[in-house]
């Protein structure tokens, strides 16, 4: 894993735009993601938060008709340069989805999956245990590693998916509303985990929950849509500033619930 101090830039976008066929989903996004911080993406439905998130590890490549313009810079390299391998990028910039999506395999094999794909030649048992401990799940599953992951509760499944994402030691973990399908107790567990994981990873999270953004993130980016329904960045600043003293009145209107 690349080492660096908190606060330096690990991931940036410049003039980033996304079109799905004739529809422009995002336009001219310029933003910087700081290492070892949690950055929350907030904004009304349809403003392109998830689309932006998926640009950061080229997941939009998998969407038919998607066309990405501009640049995404990761550790000094343009992610969309022709010589960049998207599979390698996704091992360095992991993804956790809205709904837990464990594979129909054992708990052990779920966590080891990415390691096997990447040709890991170390001790799988140690690597799986390390990831499950980081995901605060080890004590709950250590005696049933060979049982199906589908037998876990929803909250446990989501933490398993986080363990699977971090097993390959990515620099960045992207999370698309990781707690929206969970009950309040499981949600708090995932939020606590996110705060702990930023010691080792840079995290970008999409959330519709303002309180969640305020609780877990260091910085917050607020997106809106223009008259053509294209998403654009209104304001990106430290979370405390966004929630207490935003510089743009549209941000204040959204935070205070005057529009959604």
Map the helices and strands.
Blueprint: E1 9-20, E2 23-34, E3 38-42, H1 49-55, E4 66-74, E5 77-78, H2 86-92, E6 93-96, H3 107-117, H4 124-134, H5 138-141, H6 154-166, E7 172-176, H7 184-197, E8 202-206, H8 210-216, E9 219-225, E10 231-238, H9 239-244, H10 249-255
Parallel strand pairs: 3-8, 3-9, 6-7, 7-8
Antiparallel strand pairs: 1-2, 1-4, 4-5, 9-10
Helix pairs in contact: 3-4, 3-6, 4-6, 6-7
Quick tags:
six-stranded mixed sheet, about 260 residues, about 25% strand, four-stranded antiparallel sheet, single chain, alpha/beta, disordered N terminus, globular, about 35% helix, 10 helices
Helix content: 25-40%
Radius of gyration: 18 Å
Oligomer: single chain
Class by alpha and beta content: alpha/beta
Q: Order of strands across the biggest sheet?
A: 6-7-8-3-9-10
Q: What is the residue-mean pLDDT, rounded to a whole number? A: 93
Helix-strand topology string: EEEHEEHEHHHHEHEHEEHH
Helical stretch tally: 10
Number of strands: 10
Intertermini distance: 39 Å
Largest sheet: 6 strands, mixed
Tell me, briefly, the overall form.
Answer: globular
Share in β-strands: 25-35%
As residue ranges, the low-confidence spans are 1-6
């Amino acid at each position: 894993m690349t080492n660096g101090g908190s606060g330096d830039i690990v991931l940036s976008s410049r003039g980033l735009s996304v079109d799905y066929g004739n529809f422009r989903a995002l336009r001219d996004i310029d933003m910087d993601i700081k290492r070892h911080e949690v950055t929350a993406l907030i904004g009304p439905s349809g403003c392109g938060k998830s689309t932006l998130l998926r640009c950061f590890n080229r997941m939009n490549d998998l969407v038919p008709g998607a066309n990405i313009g501009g640049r995404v810079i990761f550790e000094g390299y343009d992610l969309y340069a022709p010589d960049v391998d998207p599979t390698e990028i996704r091992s360095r910039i992991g993804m956790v989805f809205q709904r837990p999506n464990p594979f129909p395999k054992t708990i052990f094999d779920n966590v080891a999956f990415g390691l096997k794909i990447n040709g890991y030649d170390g001790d799988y048992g140690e690597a799986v245990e390390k990831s499950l401990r980081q995901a605060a799940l080890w004590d709950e599953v250590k005696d049933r590693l060979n049982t199906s992951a589908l037998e876990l509760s929803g909250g446990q499944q989501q933490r398993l998916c986080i363990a699977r994402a971090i097993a390959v030691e990515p620099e960045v973990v992207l999370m698309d509303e990781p707690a929206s399908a969970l009950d309040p107790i499981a949600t708090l567990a995932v939020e606590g985990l996110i705060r702990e994981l930023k010691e080792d990873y840079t995290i970008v999270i999409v959330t519709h929950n303002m309180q969640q953004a305020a609780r877990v993130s260091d910085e917050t980016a607020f997106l809106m849509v223009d008259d053509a329904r294209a998403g654009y960045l209104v304001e990106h600043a430290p979370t405390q500033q966004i929630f207490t003293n935003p510089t743009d009145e549209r941000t204040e209107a959204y935070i205070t619930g005057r529009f959604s």
